[in-house]
Amino acid sequence: MTRWIKRRLLIVSLVVLAALAASWWWLSGNGATDGQWQTARAQPADIEDLVTALGTLEPYDYVDVGAQVSGQLEKLHVDLGDKVEKGQLLAEIDASVQESQVQAGLAQLDALRAQLEQQRAELELAQVQFDRQERLRQADATSDDAWQTAKATLATTRAQIKVLQAQIDQTQSGLEGDQATLGYAKIYAPRDGTVVTLDAREGQTLNANQTAPILMRVADLSTMTVSTEVSEADVDRLEIGMPVYFSTLGNSAVRYDSTLRQVLPTPEVVNNVVLYTAEFDVANPDNALMSGMTAQVFFVVESAKGALSVPASAVKSGADGQYVEVPAGKGRLEKRPVKTGVTDRVRVQITDGLAEGDTVVIGKVQAQTEDEPRRRGLF
């Protein structure tokens, strides 16, 4: 008797548990009811179709200041970060060699000018002697040899003056070059700006014989250029003049807006990946943007503000075009044709076919595991 009662209790318990399990299965959405679908409502949202990239900030306009003469860097008059004005003295190079060359040129020029004065005096004497010989010859009072000698002396003196004048011109030209070189020993700012790099130190020996060594960079920081690398898969989506915005890694809360200026035609290949450089400019009136900063860049291909939208998973494609599914009651679904606009791969703009608040199906409710009813306290 006791065994029979236990068996009946066991059977009843199993029946109750089976009923509870069936009820839970039905209510959880695996039955033919609306509860088996995951849904969402059509709502307004801001949607942007974006191409993302990382960029680096650099000054839009800058000048690399170099040394045009060799020598020891005697004095630096600026430091990194200093603001400078056009014509301001930046650095001085030891100019003792250039000064010696200029002094030697001046001395040589003085000597040649003295020789020229001497030759001009000799020219006057030669002219007088030739004129005398010319008069004597007309009076048949001199020999042909004396006349020929006077004529040759006059011509030679004139030629020597021409040679000296040419030497003076050559020396003068060389002296002007040496004076210009001497002037290069003092380096002045070619423009207004800020010293953003400083690659030289006082006492350093500079060799300008091959290439001009760069001492510093002076840049205008009021406008910055952002250079980004865009993959070849996305570069066709870029257009000159399209909107673009970015934020820096150090201050992601601040957004900077601009437009695309150019895409360089020659790509760079990095690890077999083809990357194109896209550049745009942004005003920097408060100098918050600095050279070398990293920017998270967003190129806006398309955008829609306050657009009626649904999750991207709700939109499907068929033979007759795009559609969404809406619950029709008793577990049935109804296909509704729609027209779409901008998408950001998360939400899709609906331009026709739905109204705000309409419910669309985005997926099926996942079946619960065997432990789920126990966690809910059904067993």
Q: Supply the helix-strand structural class.
A: alpha+beta
What is the highest CATH level, the class of the largest domain? Answer: Mainly Beta
* Count of separate structural domains: 3
The ordered string of helix (H) and strand (E) elements is HEEEEEHHEEEEHEEEEEEEEEEEH
For the largest beta-sheet, the strand count, sense and barrel status come to: 6 strands, antiparallel, barrel
Strands side by side in the biggest sheet: 2-9-13-11-10-14
Total beta-strand segments: 20
Spell out the CATH superfamily of the largest domain: Efflux pump adaptor protein, beta barrel domain
- Return the CATH topology of the largest domain: Elongation Factor Tu (Ef-tu), domain 3
Spans with pLDDT under 50 lasting ≥5 residues?
1-33, 375-379
Indicate the overall shape: elongated
Note down, in words, how this protein is organized:
This protein has 379 residues and is of the alpha+beta class. It has 3 domains: 30-47 and 306-375, conserved putative lor/sdh protein from methanococcus maripaludis s2 fold, CATH 2.40.420.20; 51-60 and 217-303, Efflux pump adaptor protein, beta barrel domain (Elongation Factor Tu (Ef-tu), domain 3, Beta Barrel), CATH 2.40.30.170; 95-183. Helix content is 32%, strand content 41%. It contains 5 helices and 20 strands. It has helices spanning 2-30, 96-138, 144-183, 232-235, 371-375, and strands at 37-41, 43-66, 71-76, 83-84, 89-93, 186-188, 193-198, 205-206, 214-231, 243-248, 251-263, 268-270, 273-283, 294-311, 316-318, 321-329, 332-337, 339-343, 347-352, 359-364. Strands 2-9-13-11-10-14 form a 6-stranded antiparallel beta barrel. Helix 2 (96-138) runs antiparallel to helix 3. The chain starts with a helix and ends with a helix.
